[in-house]
Amino acid sequence: MTTDVTNVKREALWARGTGLPDYHTHNSRCGHARGSLREYVEAALERGLSGIGVSDHLPLVHTRDPELSMALSELEAYVCDVRDLQTEYPGFILLGIEADYRPDTFDDVHGVLGSYPFDYVIGSVHYLDEWPFDDPRQRHTWEGRDVDDVWRRYFDMVGEAAETGAFTLIGHLDLVKKWGHRPLRPIEDAARTLAERIGRTDAVVEVNTSGLRKPVAELYPDLDLLRLLREHGAAVTFGSDAHSPDDVGRDFAAALAAVREAGFDSYAALEYPPTSIESPDHHPAGCVGRTPRAIPALRPLPTPPQTKAGAKGSR
Q1: Fewer CB within a 10 Å sphere, N or C end of the chain?
Q2: Helix (H/G/I), strand (E/B), else coil: 41
Q3: What distance in Å separates the CA atoms of residue 270 and residue 290, rounded to the nearest whole number?
């Protein structure tokens, strides 16, 4: 039975104007995305999102790779550029950053994060030891590895990241599946332990739609992990992981459907602390220094549109 095309189009149009935020976007500064900050912001406005989080990659502290992140010398300019846009679009933009979690560099990363007025921080795991497992240039290095061990080590590292308390959001929770490598033996115990660990923290898990555009062709995280997260009291929010303005808010209809199917009835929106001065667009510290981070506030999931009356699938 095929789905009625009219209803599919209605769902897609509805998702573009649900008033959801997109908290995971990049831009040309990182070296592997295209488009300016302004183009991403304008795309979010055009698609009816409630706001956008600019969250480019924090400069890597253990190496310098212009194809993975901006240089540390560019970070202040990045922050200032976002602050300038915030004055043009009051209340619509949050200044974020995506930081890699590695135990050996965490203290240095934490120090950098504390030196700038980020509204929120996405914590992500892209490395296991020195291995950049999701780097397209290193895809061939999966050959000969124990995939089950990789998955377990990855889940353990993500749990550690959440428990540091340094990250507002946890990015692409099961990124380890990006190239389609699956465990050969059950790892439900590791997945449940990860959900339990996250549920004991204040970290919010993003439902990241970029996995639908990768070889695995799935959301991060998958439905089973989403159900475990709900069971253990974790909150979720939304991110496209856009590396092009065209991808801002992309596939949010699929993300909403998965979140709802997993049993969630709310999502976390990032709001500025009421004790701060006015709004996230008023930062007396300017481009450097520390200001209070945005805090997650639960909001009801938007209600999907009614399907066309009497619409039926065809066999």
Answers
A1: C
A2: helix
A3: 17
